[in-house]
Amino acid sequence: MQKKNVTQILGFFFLRFCMFFVAFILIVIFYDIFTKGIGKISWEFLTQAPRKGMTEGGIFPAIVGTFWVTLITAVFAVPLGMGCAIYLNEYAGDSKLTRLIRMSIRNLSGVPSIVYGLFGVALFVEMMHLGTGILSAGMTLGLMTLPWTITASEEALKSVPKSYREGALALGATKWESIWTNVLPYAIPGMLTGTILGLARAAGETAPILFTGAAFFLPILPRSIKDQFMALPYHLYIMSTQHHAIEKVRPIAYGTALVLIVLVFMMNFSAILIRYKLRKQQRE
Amino acid sequence: MKINKEKIIAGLFFVNGMIVVISLAGIFILLLTNSLPAFKDIKLTEFLFTAEWNPTSYVKEKYGILSMVMSTFMVTLGALLIAIPLGIGTAAYLSDVASHRVRETAKPIVEILAGIPSVVIGFLGIVMVGPLIARAAGLSNGLNAINGSILLAVMALPTIVSLTEDALGSVPKSYTEASLALGGNPWQTLIRVKIPAASSGILAACMLGMGRAIGETMTVLMATGNAPAFPHKFTDSVRTLTASIAIELGEVPYFTTHYHALFAIGLVLFIITFIINLIADIVLHRYEQKVRM
After folding, report:
1. A interface mutation test: which of B18, B119, B210, B259 has the most A CBs within 10 A?
2. Distance (Å, rounded) from C-alpha A55 to C-alpha B67?
3. Which one of A16, A100, A146 has the shortest CB-CB distance to B97?
4. Which of A45, B238, B248, B260 is deepest in the core (most CB within 10 A)?
5. In chain B, whose CA is at the least distance from the CA of A199?
6. Which stretches of chain B drop beneath a pLDDT of 70?
7. Helix, strand, coil proportions of chain A in percent (round to 5)?
């Protein structure tokens, strides 16, 4: 009996160690980026373009580029993702076709991001003649975000009680009317939250935009959605591997990493805030 | 009139639902049609089973992906060796050891880790993990397969932890209670009852983690050195399938053999991850049925 307790203590100690180690990894990542990146952050860094062969100046064009490409991603992924979730949760029965759709969603989320990049080149840049630019890159990211948006939206729809739908149907509403008036208002906060979380991941992605529109350096801001753009994750990649004076621009790379992380977590945080606020409103 | 409108709306949603199927099929078809022209000049056996990749040689272009396959295999293996024990341990802690309050604060750690962009992890591979490895192993630089493995482990961890935790959580309570009633302590219950009962779910979690590691691009591109030679040990610099596409697609002229060969690498990646996902899917599906019974 005594021996078994010792194994249990050792075993649980190991499990605790695993959890602490994972937490430790996260702390080290944040500590390093924050302590070394914070010194670079200034008003100039955030609002000016890179200067002198990208060894000085700021990252403003990259921030603008990431904003535009994420917007296009949203325009493309949000309606399609929500629509697909509504179909799966409200209309589709348990048929072979439904299972095929679900299997496709799971497989799409497992497709490597660089393969999405290849797909973007083949479809948007080449076949549809859109060229490399914000539109091609945004649509590539949109397609990549789709499975996450669908899964999160369906989760939100599932959490709306069945009685809400039945109530509307019993009063003579059609199926769409019951969805529109009795399901969507309650599901929207959750759908929005999940969608923003997906977009935050898209904003930090690099591989899909490598060949669909991201540019090394641009002297002017993009003026249309077919223009090429600078993006934060791509800028970080350039600054840490491709620049001619890597050691010299290390502080800029740290600053870019910090801005990127803060941006992604601000999006995550706002998503959670939206859910919280809207839920509170509904309860009142 | 009303019924017609309803039918149209339902039809639109159906079309919307089919878009994901069409997208997946579209990815496969476009990869295939863009790969095939490469095999006018390259023999399929040469492509798959030779190790030399030199598409820009003046003498004779070589298109063999074996060193890249080996590189991908090595970093994935290394990543799983780290991430599987750590991930399962963390998941078991969250589901069986942590109190409710600790769990609520600890769970976001895993979620935040999943939210860090891969390019940031790759950057830390260069500035933090690389120098550490170089110093510990006495190498000139730390951009090698070990570095890639460590970073990929971080990338695969969230997937493994959250899915393993789900699997452990869906083991019926009666199993645990029976074990405890028979005099087993919580550790024995976890090791001999819950983990075996959740084994297919855990297996699926590890497979999906493996899929992520194989498909990851930025971290390995930045932190493994990208030497195109055949790797022999973990301190060698490696160049994975994903990194090769990322390095070369930007410089290659469109519609050349080289361009099509890069799509062929993409097709290989697509097929590998598709099979892994499919197996994970089947394993998980069986598991769900078993739990329901």
Report:
1. B119
2. 36
3. A16
4. B238
5. B115
6. 1-3, 287-293
7. 75, 0, 20
